[in-house]
Amino acid sequence: MIRLPSFTYLAPRTLAEAATAMAEHGRDAMLVAGGTDLYPNMKRRQFEPKVVVGLRGIRELRGVRVESGGWTIGAGTTLSEVSTHPAIARDFPALATAAGLVSSPQLRNMGTIGGNVCVDTRCNYYNQSYEWRKAIGFCMKKDGDICLVAPGSSRCWAVSSSDTAPVLWALGARLRVVGAGGERIVPIAALYRDDGIEYLAKRPDEIVADVLLPPADGWRSAYLKLRRRGSFDFPVLGVAVAARMNGDVVREARIVLGAVASLPRPAERAAAELVGQRITRDLVTRVADLAAGPSKPLDNTDFTHPYRKRVTRVFVARALAAIGGLGDGGPASEEVA
Amino acid sequence: MKVRIALTVNDEVHEALVPVHKTLLEVLREDLALTGTKHGCELGECGTCTVLVDGQPVLSCLALPLETEGRRITTIEGLADGARLHPLQQAFAELGAAQCGYCTPGILLTAAALLSERPSPTRQEVKEALAGNLCRCTGYTKILDAVELAALRMERART
Amino acid sequence: MTKNDFAVVGQPLPKVDAWAKVVGETRYADDLFLPRMAYAKLLRSSHAHARIRSIDTARARALPGVYAVVTAADLPPVKFGILPVSQDEEALCADKVRMVGDPLAAVAAVDEETADLACRLIDVTYEPLPALMSIFDALAHPEVRIHEYGDGPNVHKNVALQFGDVDAALVGADLVREDVFFFEGNTHLPMEQHAAVAHWTSDGKLTLWSSTQTPHYVHRVLAKVLATPAAHIRVIATPVGGGFGGKTDPFSHEIVACQLSKLTGRPVKIALTREEVFYTHRGRHPVLMWIKTGFTKRGDITGCHLRTWLDGGAYGSYGVASTFYTGVINPVTYKIPVYKFEGARIFTNKPACGPKRGHGTPQPRFALECQLDKAAEQLGLDPADLRRRIVVEPYTKTANHLTVTTIGLGECIDKVVEASGWRAKRTRYGVTAAMGSQPTGGSREGGAGCTHLVQPEPPSPKKPGIGIACSAYMTGAGTAIYWNDMPHSGVIVRADRSGGVAILCGATDIGQGSDSVLAYLTAEVLGLEPVDVQVFPADTSLTPVDLGSYSSRVTLMCGMAAIQAAGRLRDAIFKAVARKLEVDPAALVARERKIGVPDDWDKAVSFARAVELGEAMHGVLAFPGSYAPPKRAGKYKGGGVGPSPCYSYSACVVELTVDEETGTVDLRDVWIAHDIGRTLNPLLAEGQVEGSIYMGIGEALMEEQVFRKGLHKQPSMLEYKSPTTLETPEIHTILVETDDPEGPFGAKEVGQGPLLPVIPAIANAIHHALGIRIDEVPITPDKILKALELRRRGKPPRVGPERLPLFTFKDPLVVESAFGQPADAIGVRPFQS
């Protein structure tokens, strides 16, 4: 059996206590909510925290609330709860879809939306046991100093592998982040950095506490996920599209690609092309071609990277077609919200 | 560092002194001698070690006992009602849904959670509920059949 | 006997071990906990190919909680291997490592965590050697030798057999096709990771409990490698949590656990991690294939020439047999009057390949069935009709001198063609249909209401297709792994005064239900219920030898032995009951737990009473049964691989859709008809078919064991893609009965054969859907898009291997074709009386 290394476990009751504990232990400490990302990585010795700060006992992290200004989803809300929440499915179908496509039913019962937003970047040179990584000579993300995907590179190219992050970005979500020195509210885009190692733009003591969503008025959204199997697998391409419609004319739109870079990658030019337009097949084709531009996968996940790039265009087209009511165009219906 | 924990497993309280980093899977098997819970990867990638915590299927290989204190844990040893098998156990045995039997405990518990939430699932719903449990022997066919049979029998028993 | 005469046979009974399995009571190897038990871990090589300069275990030994550390120096310098001709493995590598994951040292400690930590404290210095990671690499670098033995540098085995004048047969053909295919390697992935517990007690005796399919072979190897009398070693196979051929070799971890137990005086458990299971492997060989076949206009095969190159990995394992199996089983399915086969197994620095479900035959089956499909297309013949026409005649010999008995393949083809709606779908789906005006999307939904759509609905990118393929597989190898004249299977039946019956048999239940089959057959013969029969399996000190759960041999061989043993018990009891009832023993029957004369059933005595009468007359009632297959080895060198008492047949139709924009394949339905000879239990038989289909689907579409930079690319359950419930289609199983005279109550195998046709049926259905050929598995979406892209560029829409190795096969052993000759004597075998 592959087992966890030893550590000290702290179980704070409040966010403030948790942030204080994190501040006190600095880089030696890591947060755990569902444990579905942290513990496998600890078993493979990708993470070696001396202190684990458990968030499970913090009540304020749980639950979904609707207020006049929009929605608040506690970061500790499980992915199962998010995916089956009737009002989320109604107002933010892409979010319900994305949460419901994360890994497997068991892991969705354990894993939280905060955990998925902060999920470690992945690379098939990195998500391996200590012995495997030792045999290949380690990489810069852990224990080594080169990138095995792009050996000449000075940076790490591990892949953002969250299903919910591109959707939340497309929906204009903000995050409430609580640290030892207070809290701040930031657009979700500001959480991410284009680096496989330092992929989160937050201090170690800062805890993602809430996901805040604006009211869904007029927004339609869709999420498509590419992976080998209908369960377990991380996305190797995610396409999130959200559009605010006025009748059949697009007023505002965002297209965000997942799992093709170290952070969710917005396709801004493509989205801009939609604004003020009716969604027609010609427009879908044009926008899909543009959206595939920022998709720059490397050979460090399942499937070949040229294939992932190629499917980006198809998925963007299908997601747009779904939003524009042009028929599903083909993909498995459960993947279209 | 060892901690004293009290786990409620199959409606019985078990106390144990275990290292913090020992997973629920390891404690169930090695400290409580409940070896009915199996393991196939210990990394959350196969579903074999599924147990129920407060009625929900979770992976015991990624759960810490500390985090499950005060919650209701059900393992395969607790699925039957005393000597009376759960209808799922009966159906799995009758229909040949267990071949090597190694994934069977995890699948039975996952299916039990499904049926308590959704007593008459469609075949597609059963497939989705069991999508996190790998089986290499059966092609899932007899497993799906057995869940459907158990659901039917439970439905009949209720009416 | 006819079907209606059976009481137990043919009934959908639960398996005898089902109840323990559904309540979690079955004790697998890792569920064993003994007092004072120590836990062992192996240190494995981090180099694909290297000399070992030194191993320093001092730091590990000094770690508190460590009981013992061993290296090759602590074991007798004896190599082992499953086949007598390939004794090339070491429990712990002494001088050289040949793959990442090769075992170097082992630690026994107070717990697994300590053992693991100690392994990390062992210092090894290596002198790296070039790693040869493919067939091409290994052949291009004869100066780097992975092993010093074999049929040439890095060539483990080179075989060439020719039956008749193939060149002449090809010249006379109306169509000659030459095709090249590649089948990527994949692995068994049993849910249970290998585990073993060894206990070398103070009386000098050793017991090993292990998750193994072959306790007898493990027993033999332990005696050899540990230099200990076999008489003092007992091997018990625990219930196996999935095997599929992956637990059929004796393994390093088993040997090391024994040695550590000897040194520590404690029971020692060793349980592999999932990653280690990938290194232990012995799975499907990657095989490159060239096949040239001649056809007449009507679709008859005039002759066939097949070349195979197997990527064997770092050790021999079953590889010599695997090499033969890529060639010798092919002529059992269709009439091939003359046949030539050349095969070579190449060593590479990867985990050793070996026997995975279908052992060596799914790869050439894929090649042959795809080539048949191409030929049918060129000849303008329906692929099902072509196959139906060329099915081998029953009770004849093949070109390579294999005797075939019953053949239900014609009926299998008819049944799947009918059940699947083959003829209508063949016309309605597919590229030719798509060129017409008919919409081809959505095979299930039909025309959903779309009248109010403003924009015209574009054609769906999901194109339906339907494909067929067939196969045959052996019911147990006709020869043992080590040459001998002893039984392949033995059973002892013992009756006790309670009316219960005990069966002792060396067979190992790996989930296929061998314990149950033994109980069913014995109950059938003795007129009992299976619950009255207690099966004690797989214990080398108690049970007669069965060679192991491989080669689809157990139901037939143990079954025949059980029927013989139970028949002897019945005869003895009948004699005593006959005296008591003053009737002729021949007038008696055994049924409903009684023995009596059917016409005077009121006087029938209970089985328990009958046992008492029998015991009073004969003494203890314990009877042996023995089975060895008919001696039918071809009278040429190599003729021992391929013969089997009988062969099963399968025909499979797959319906699917392929998304032409993403290349994604969505399986809808699989229909399979399988000639099983006789269904002993439909639930278990269907379960074997469904499991085979599932495994075939994984191999066809997603599973692959691939390497990068000398390492396994994805040794995890997450990245090695095993299909979930969501990828598994509806499976429609049809069992065809031919009542084979060689099998127990007419039964043939069902555990492996049904896997074979699935893979080419999928490939052929994809061709039907899109008009493209993917001549290599797994058929992944990127390959489908690549083929479509080739077609757009006006090139042949085929993706597959582009080159073959430069390699000289041996001069073939030329033997006359025995095609069409009458079968050897049927039902004649050793130990019959």
Which labels suit this protein?
heterotrimer, A: 337 residues, alpha+beta, Uridine Diphospho-n-acetylenolpyruvylglucosamine Reductase, domain 3, four-stranded antiparallel β-sheet, 30% helix, 20% strand, disordered C terminus, B: 159 residues, Ubiquitin-like (UB roll), DNA polymerase, domain 1, five-stranded mixed β-sheet, 38% helix
**CATH structural fold name of the domain at 36-129 and 191-242 and 247-280 in chain C:** Aldehyde Oxidoreductase, domain 3
CATH topology of the largest domain in chain B: Ubiquitin-like (UB roll)
CATH homologous superfamily annotation of the largest domain in chain B: Beta-grasp domain
Strand neighbour order, sheet with most strands of chain C: 3-5-1-12-9-10-11
Give the helix/strand class of chain B.
alpha+beta
Under the CATH scheme, which class of the largest domain in chain B?
Answer: Alpha Beta
Oligomer: heterotrimer
Task: Please provide a brief summary of the model.
Chain B has 159 residues and is of the alpha+beta class. Chain B has helices at 24-31, 65-68, 87-95, 104-117, 123-129, 141-158, and strands spanning 2-9, 12-19, 50-53, 56-59, 72-74.
